[in-house]
């Protein structure tokens, strides 16, 4: 298991660059206002457009800015069910993790999957129409023989907090 976690950690590590206060402000603004015009962004961080554009490009090239996108309201699609699921695999060989991860990667209703330590192997976030749809997905996972030994389901009853990455707090820790 430790080998697996070390491998995964190395795979997600990005190029390390020194971030200053302006970089952090750019990141915080872009998280909240992804469609902000570049000239407005430059003005808000007290830079002219060219240096602001260069900083933005440097953040993209370093992999700190992964992509740009819209935040979609789940409520716009009617009632949905969100379920967090803890998964424990039967065996802990590298091929077992790979097989499970490949299968999970193909299921669009599984919107997040995290390899974790501490007694379970994975934490999944699943969004479905209802509990019946969720149960069908779980039955399909078990029938696929991808090594699931045990799973625990936690149905979300109400969202409490869902915020963007606290850029300045994370940057201080690093």
Give the percentage of residues in beta strands.
15-25%
Low confidence ranges: 1-14
For the record, give the distance between the C-alpha atoms at the N and C termini, rounded to a whole number.
25 Å
Task: Classify the helix fraction into a percent range.
Answer: 40-55%
Instruction: Give the spatial strand order of the biggest sheet.
Output: 2-3-1-4
**What is the makeup of the main sheet?**
4 strands, antiparallel
Radius of gyration, Cα only, in angstroms? 20 Å
H/I helix tally: 7
- What would you call the shape? elongated
Structural class: alpha+beta
Written as H for each helix and E for each strand, in order along the chain, the element string is HHHHEHEEHEH
Average the pLDDT over all residues and give the rounded result.
88
Q: Using DSSP, what is the number of strands?
A: 4
Keywords:
174 residues, alpha+beta, 4-stranded antiparallel sheet, 7 helices, 4 strands, 43% helix, disordered N terminus
Describe the fold and architecture.
This protein is 43% helix and 17% strand. By secondary structure, the chain is α+β, with helices and mostly antiparallel strands. It has a four-stranded antiparallel β-sheet with strand order 2-3-1-4, with helices on one face. The longest helix has 13 residues, at 49-61. The radius of gyration is 20 Å and the shape is elongated. It starts with a helix and ends with a helix. Residues 1-14 have low confidence and may be disordered.
